[in-house]
Amino acid sequence: MHPDLPQPLNAARTFLFVPGNRPDRYEKALDSGADAVVLDLEDAVPPAEKHATRAAIAAAWPRLRSAGIPIVVRLNPPGLPTGGEDLDWLAGLGDPPAGLMIPKTESRADLAAVRAARPDAVLLPLIESAAGYDALADIAGAPGVGRLVLGHIDFMADTGIQCAEDEHELAPLRFALTIASRRHRLAPPVDGVTLTLKDDDRLHRDTLRSLRFGFGAKLCIHPRQVSVIHRAMHPGPDEIAWARRVLDADAGSGGQAVQLDGRMIDRPVVLRAQRLLARVRSEDR
Q1: Helix (H, G, I), strand (E, B) or coil at 197
Q2: Rounded Cα gap, residues 72 and 53, in angstroms
Q3: Which of 68, 128, 163, 173 could form an S-S bond across to 154 if both were Cys, CB 3.0 to 4.6 Å?
Q4: Are 137 and 1 in contact, with CB atoms under 8 Å apart?
């Protein structure tokens, strides 16, 4: 796990976007139950409102930082003028955000300027393009990176990929983010948004897919999505009971091979049980 990553961001299951130009929504986001709140300076904010949005966030910053919930800021791409303005603003913000989400990350160089402006903040690069996919290893190994984040909507726009509902076309992309995260000892990656707001079944299915691909969190675009994702990510009673039985059997084996329910319990099975129970402990804190 990345040594610079604070535990709350490491274990976060939900990252809830709130438009930075809507300070009236800050409190609702903080009260949503999300594990982290993302103040958006990018897509949600029209160009003419960027300056006023930065001022609104700065004015609310002491209150936001004291809320006890990790606050992440999604910047504008650092190569754009608005991104450069974001970095100048960040340098004078005082206490750092818990994380900085960097859109359209396509190289280690994209992260270097952000790291220089706030070396005390964890970087959360968004992979949203073919170039970002191609540079995954370089990005995941860059100084300050804590978790990779999938921006699959922009990725589809960049590549021309058109997905069915199950998004099986993006399986190689999700697989690659998980492998890059594991290879560079990062926390599990963060999956992209589910755009449907009133289809809890779809959101539940999407979250289970995230888990199957080794993701540990999802981006959210509405507070009502938070509880659905948390429920989907929480292991069921049968899974928890199985994991405990595996660990009990392993502990009582004296290091010898042991069977449980007619199946051999080896190291990969024990690791899977440990990870499942670790999720339960993290979620129940």
Answers
A1: coil
A2: 15
A3: 128
A4: no
pLDDT band at 2 (very low <50, low <70, confident <90, very high): very low
Cross-strand bridge partners of residue 191:
218
Single-letter code of the amino acid located at 35 = D
Q: Which contiguous run of DSSP H or E holds residue 245?
A: helix 237-251
Cα separation, 274 vs 70, whole angstroms = 26
What is the Cα–Cα distance from 57 to 60, expressed in whole angstroms? Answer: 5
Q: Which residues contact 148 (CB under 8 A, 6 or more apart)?
A: 124, 125, 127, 136, 139, 140, 177, 180, 181, 186, 189, 190
What is the per-residue pLDDT for 1?
41
| pLDDT tens, position by position, 215-242 | 999 999 999 999 999 999 887 777 788 8
Model confidence, pTM? 0.86
**CA–CA gap between residue 187 and residue 11 (Å, rounded):** 8
Q: Return d(Cα 104, Cα 106) in angstroms, integer.
A: 6
**What gap in Å lies between CA 127 and CA 140, rounded to an integer?**
10
Dihedral (CA of 106, 107, 113, 115) sign = positive
Q: Which of 53, 99, 93, 84 is nearest to 219 (CA)?
A: 99
Q: Tell me which H or E stretch contains 85.
A: helix 81-91
Length of the chain: 285
Which of 52-61, 187-196, 270-279 is predicted with the least confidence, judged by mean pLDDT? 270-279
Q: Give the integer Cα–Cα distance in Å for 18 and 29.
A: 7
